[in-house]
Amino acid sequence: MSNSTARAISPAELEARLRLHALPDLGPQRFQRLLQAFGSASKALSAPASAWRSLGLPSACGDARRSAQVRDDARHALAWLEPAAQHLLMWDQPGYPPLLAQLDDAPPLLFVAGDPKILELPQLALVGSRRASPPGLDTARAFSRSLAGAGFVITSGLALGIDGAAHQAALDVGGRTVGVLGSGLENIYPQRHRSLARAMIERGSAVVSEFPLGCSPRPDHFPRRNRIISGLSLGVLVVEASVASGSLITARLAAQQGREVYAIPGSIHHPGARGCHQLIRDGALLVESVQQILETLSGWQNLPPSPAPSPEPIAHPLLALLHAAPHSSEGLALASGWSLPQVLAALTELEIEGRAQRENGRWFARLS
């Protein structure tokens, strides 16, 4: 079934789909297999157990479909949908994000808190390390602001670090942003970003999840979440990531899905740059400015003609060194050839101006 041939579904069919969705170990592809085999969720629920087994479905799915818990979960989801800002998008119904619908394992149901219409707008994913360095966070904020100003919806995973910085920066310039969860919408994770999620919902953005509303975060949920982040987006920008980072999973999924992959390089001494360097070796576009991203997507429709300008070139010699890598005061004196008192005086001025900051004995440049 495709979006072009979709028909509005009945309330009974909607409840049946929610019951299927609540079954353990079903997953997107098995969900689609049931709909294709029986023609509707209602008929699938009433089919004999032997028919389910013939489709290779786990016995736990068939055993649970008539349970009181599954019925209660479906009724709870129906009640959750009553407020105006809470929605359910279905793969074969109008309003489902068109890029996401192209995936073989597209989520059959997608819960949305906020404005679902922004999921049909051009999106760029911006992802990176949960333990990002101050320069990495500044880079994420600067790129997010400029891309949001250029008309893109900024999509990320609402995680700590780069994700949260990207979401907040888009909101700060009046842009829109989408957070994709690895848990249910009634169980926002991480808890520290619950206020950020509320702000996104209240300010015309959206938080989405394919998982049942009360579902807890689990390690295996995050790769599934990552395929949605990349699947919604025209491209994925990785700001800072280790080689083992989940951000690299998102980037590789993006490449498999035919999306653009961008990576920002960093110092060879910084562990958070190694994942980006690996992506560049694998064929990602090395990005030093927002303009490079916009040029690769110049043909995309519905974007404003004038993107936000790139940051001005760095003039201060100490800032040039700090943008290359974090340094101690003594390291800056050695690298610049200045005396230590000169370096300390200059760093104090830069800190007052908000252009540099000190953390754990090292100095970092700030992009904003």
Oligomer: single chain
Q: What is the helix fraction of residues, given as a range?
A: 40-55%
What is the succession of H and E elements?
HHHHHHEHEEHEHEHEHEHEHEHHHHEE
Shape: elongated
Q: Please indicate the count of domains.
A: 3
- Mind telling me which CATH architecture of the largest domain this is? 3-Layer(aba) Sandwich
- Using only CA atoms, what is the Rg? 23 Å
Would you give an account of this structure?
- The chain is α/β, with parallel strands linked by helices.
- It folds into three domains: 8-81, DNA polymerase, domain 1, CATH 1.10.150; 116-296, Rossmann fold, CATH 3.40.50.450; 317-365, Arc Repressor Mutant, subunit A.
- It has 17 helices and eleven strands.
- It has helices at residues 11-21, 27-38, 41-46, 49-54, 59-64, 68-80, 98-101, 134-149, 162-172, 194-202, 221-232, 246-256, 274-281, 290-296, 317-324, 329-336, 340-352; strands at residues 86-90, 109-114, 123-127, 153-156, 177-180, 206-209, 235-238, 260-263, 285-286, 356-359, 362-365.
- The strands form two sheets. It has a nine-stranded mixed β-sheet with strand order 1-2-6-5-4-3-7-8-9, with helices on both faces.
- A hairpin with a 2-residue loop joins strand 10 (356-359) and strand 11.
- The chain is elongated.
Could you give a quick summary of the protein structure above?
The chain is built from 17 helices and eleven strands.
Q: What's the structural blueprint in terms of helices and strands?
A:
Blueprint: H1 11-21, H2 27-38, H3 41-46, H4 49-54, H5 59-64, H6 68-80, E1 86-90, H7 98-101, E2 109-114, E3 123-127, H8 134-149, E4 153-156, H9 162-172, E5 177-180, H10 194-202, E6 206-209, H11 221-232, E7 235-238, H12 246-256, E8 260-263, H13 274-281, E9 285-286, H14 290-296, H15 317-324, H16 329-336, H17 340-352, E10 356-359, E11 362-365
Parallel strand pairs: 3-4, 3-7, 4-5, 5-6, 7-8, 8-9
Antiparallel strand pairs: 1-2, 2-6, 10-11
Helix pairs in contact: 1-6, 8-9, 11-12, 16-17
